[in-house]
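Researcher: I'm preparing a figure for a lab meeting and need a structural model of a single chain. I don't have an experimental structure, so a prediction will have to do for now. The sequence is pasted below. Please return the structure as tokens so I can convert it later.
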Amino acid sequence: MAIEWKELSSSPCNLCPRECGVNRKVGQTGYCLSDNRIFVARAALHMWEEPCISGEAGSGTVFFSGCNLRCVYCQNHEIAGGKKGRQVSVRQLAEIFLELQAKGAANINLVTPDHYMDQIAEAVLTAKDMGLILPVVYNGSGYEKREVIRNLAGIIDVFLTDFKYMEKGLAEKYSKAPDYPAVAAAALEEMTQIAGDAVFDEKGMMQKGIIVRHLILPGHKKNAKAVVKYLYETYGDRIYISLMNQYTSFLKVMEGADYKELCRKVTKREYEAVVDYAIDLGVRNAFIQEGDTAGESFVPKFDLNFHV
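Model: Understood. Here is the structure written out token by token.
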């Protein structure tokens, strides 16, 4: 059955929870710092995702410029601020997907796609008509409207989503989004309706399902444990939880007087305390990071060196 995409954005734009109300179709920009043109900062095989996403071949990641959350500690802050990227058309984006497939990508991984979702959905459907057969991964912040997520049935196969905060105060301080916990919870509930239980191929690569990431922040074990508790008590083993210790403090954070607590790595003791808490709760479907993963080496180079 052919999939039809119902356009979500409008003028004024209320595509995301911030509901800025700008007219992106005439070049205005809101909180995401993006108008109606698609800007891509990187398109390449990526080896640094969870094992069932990257595998041995690599995930076909497409990093989009701009972001509706723009956390103060964002490791991709260079592109989240919309300062880097190459403009592509919907047809060119579809061709990028197909080129990544030709290179052997395990999937097509859409990184921070929400503010371009109308155009991306059209590109995915165009690529499928042209021969795209890979699973499509929605790699987002968790700060999405549930009605947008609901419209992704038939477009998205795997959700690789963040769940950053259970504490409203932290969401306000670091992301200017005190409604994040409620918004992310509603979006995740909708994702479970679309993706259902996890499905893997013979190589252990996820073809369908949900991975929820939580980046542990220095000094915030309480928030991390609250996130894990909510996820496991709500969804049990229906989802996979990815606990990340790769938090890296960048210069812009270290220069901010209000964020001194973020000017260090997460300690081994902090991380292990959260992992042990998850194990004690009964979490079994989980990914953890070993060793020292904090560092700029885990941040992709946004050199715009991709073919369109």
